[in-house]
Amino acid sequence: MPMRQFIVAATLALAIAGAAASPTPAAAQQTAIPRNSNVDVQYVGFRYQELYDRLRKRQILEELGQFLSPLRLQQKLTIRTTTCGVVNSFYDYTTHAINLCYELLDMIENGAAVPASKLPPPPDPKTPLGLIPGVTRAEAIVGGIVGVALHETGHAVFDIQQVPRLGREEDAADMIAGFIMLQFGNDVTRTMVKGTYNLMRHMYASNPSIDYNSMADVHSLNMQRAYNYLCLAYGKDAASIKDLADAWLPPARKPDCANEYQQALSAFDKTIMPSVDQTLLAKVRGMQILRADDSKL
């Protein structure tokens, strides 16, 4: 399953916003891997100068260009970190650009990854904000940001590679994100699932009401999204994710999770795998994904 692994590796780099650059022998070996010639990267600074400086020093986007080298994109893709004015991240279909907004990265670090006791009272006292029991701050930051980056990458791949999708675009992008984060070993899977679930639950806790506007949104409800990610993981390997599913996934959802995973597996193999350069992929699989300081969040 190498293609699935390489996309996870690509987006893992985006999760380590607080890390400092430190050259290593493995990093030196990575210089032999070309960046994808169809990927442009941009750091756009404005209000979040410190975060901008950390990301640029770590060369997050440059490394992402290397990770994406095996994917034969049909046209240019731009990936940028930028100030958006709102808590959001999005793929722009007109400019073919993934926009990773500093506001969202900041919200994950200083909201979703903070204990409830250190945050303002939630709208619903029964649904606390921030970290949920069993999720560490590092897992919330890494998993949350990777989930966002994978989701936007899904939109970009659909658009640029002209991948057909039946159903809602946002749900399909969630499925790509959820599927890919499961292909990189059990430890990474648990971090990604815990962080993404925690983020979606935090977003739900910030606005727990369900009204006509939320039901009409192009996205599924945040708790539906949280359950979808968890179900996909449970469907791939119920034993390794059993404790999380028992704690967070309603029992009525569990029986069909294996079928949901197989559906995602079949769709991925038929629509995305044909666009991969296997020679470059072999090199990318040997790249260093995380550095020693990247877990010190």
The number of distinct β-strands equals: 4
User: SS-based structural class?
Assistant: alpha/beta
**Which regions are unreliable across 5 or more consecutive residues at pLDDT < 50?**
1-29
Fraction in beta strands: 5-15%
Mean pLDDT: 83
Compile the SSE list and pairings.
Elements (H helix, E strand, L loop, with lengths): L1 H11 L12 H5 L9 E5 L5 H10 L1 H8 L9 E6 L6 E4 L4 E5 H11 L24 H24 L8 H12 L5 H21 L5 H5 L5 H15 L1 H11 L8 H15 L6 H7 L13
Parallel strand pairs: 1-2, 2-4
Antiparallel strand pairs: 3-4
Explain this structure.
There is one protein chain. With 297 residues, this protein is an alpha/beta fold. The chain has one domain (2-209, 218-273). It contains 13 helices and 4 strands. The protein has helices at 2-12, 25-29, 49-58, 60-67, 102-112, 137-160, 169-180, 186-206, 212-216, 222-236, 238-248, 257-271, 278-284, and strands at 39-43, 77-82, 89-92, 97-101. Strands 1-2-4-3 form a 4-stranded mixed β-sheet. β3 and β4 (97-101) form a beta hairpin. α10 packs across α12 (257-271). The longest helix is centred in the middle third of the chain and has 24 residues, at 137-160. It is globular and about 50 Å long. The two termini are 30 Å apart. 41% of the residues are buried. Mean pLDDT is 83; it is low at 1-29.
